[in-house]
Amino acid sequence: MTVLEKILPKYIIAMFSKLNLEKLYEIRLRSRAPLLINYGGDYKYIGTSGVISDTPDGAFIIGQEIPQIVLARACEFSLYAHNNRLKDGYVSLEGGIRIGVAGETVYEGNEVKTIKNVTSVNIRLPHHIAGCSDKIFRFLFDEQNTPLGALIISPPGAGKTTMLRDISRNFSTCKKVYNVAIADERCEIAAVNFGIAQLDVGFNTDIISACKKKYAFECAVRTLTPDVLITDEIATSDDLSACIEAAGSGVAVIASAHAKDVEELRQKLRFREYMDFAFKRFVILSCRCGKGTIEQVCDAEGRIYYEAKK
Hints:
The structure is a single chain. The chain is an alpha/beta fold and 310 residues long. Helices cover 25% and strands 30% of the residues. It has helices at 2-7, 10-15, 66-74, 83-86, 134-137, 160-172, 213-223, 237-248, 262-266, 269-272, 275-278, and strands spanning 24-30, 36-39, 42-46, 52-53, 90-92, 98-108, 111-124, 150-154, 180-184, 192-193, 196-197, 205-209, 228-231, 252-258, 281-286, 293-298, 304-307. The strands form 3 sheets. An 8-stranded mixed beta sheet has the order 12-9-13-14-8-15-16-17, sandwiched between helices. A 7-stranded antiparallel beta sheet has the order 4-3-2-1-7-6-5. It has a two-stranded antiparallel sheet with strand order 10-11. Strand 6 and strand 7 form a beta hairpin. The protein is globular.
C-alpha cells in the first residue's frame, strides 16, 4: 500500500481498508465519475464506507482535479522528468504499478509532445502469483526439451502479464540452465526500480526495460544469447517483426497479445501471415473462473494440448 499512499488522497486510501488488497487489480479515477475498481477480476463501485457494489448508486464521486493531482504526485511533481513515458499514455512506479493516463494530447509536428488537462487515470497493480504457469509449462517444450515460442492470448485484464512473469521464473529456475531475456517496455513484467527487479522473474534472467521492443530484442539477441525472450503486448508491425527476427535466430519468443482466441487474432492483418512462424504454442486465458483462467493450450495446426473443463 506504500506507493498508493504516496499518490492517493488519504480519504481514498481509507476506502480500501476493508478490502483484500490481493484482489485489487485496478483503481480507475475519472473526473466527476464514480470510483471504480477491478476487484478479483470484476469491476465494482466503491463508496466512502468501503462497501463495494455492482451499481454506481452510493459510490464515491471523484473530484474534477483528482486525476491531475494523482498524476502529479506519481511524477513527484515533475511531469517533465516523466514525459518520455507520459507522452505514450502512462507512467510507471515502484513495484510495477503502471498508471494509464487520459487527457488532452499536445502535438509538436506529427508527434505527441505530452498530455495535459488529465481527465482520468487507471492505476494498475501487479500481482506475483508464483506457480500460475505450472499447469502449462511442460507444453512450452518440444520432444528434445527445447523451448518453444508461445503467445499468451486473452482480452485485456485477464492476467497475461502475470502469466509471462511466472513463465520467466519457471524457465529461469529450471534444473537445466536456460538463459532468459525480458524486453520490459513498460516496466510491468519485472518492475525494475533503480536496477533491481521488484517482482520474481527468476535468477537466470536479463532484463532490458523502458525501451521499444525492437531495440531490446536486437540487443538481447546480439549480446545476451538468450534461449528464451519474453515480452508483453505485441500490437504493432514492428513488435511482430522483432518477434519474427528473434525466432529466426533460434530464440524462443514468448509474448502476449489482446484477443479472445487464436481465430480472432488471425483476423488482425499484421498477425495473419507470420504468426505461426514465431509461435508454436498458443495459451488462451480468460476471467471465467477468476483472472488468469487457463482455457486452452494449442498449436498452429489446432492440436489441443490442454483444455479446461467447462
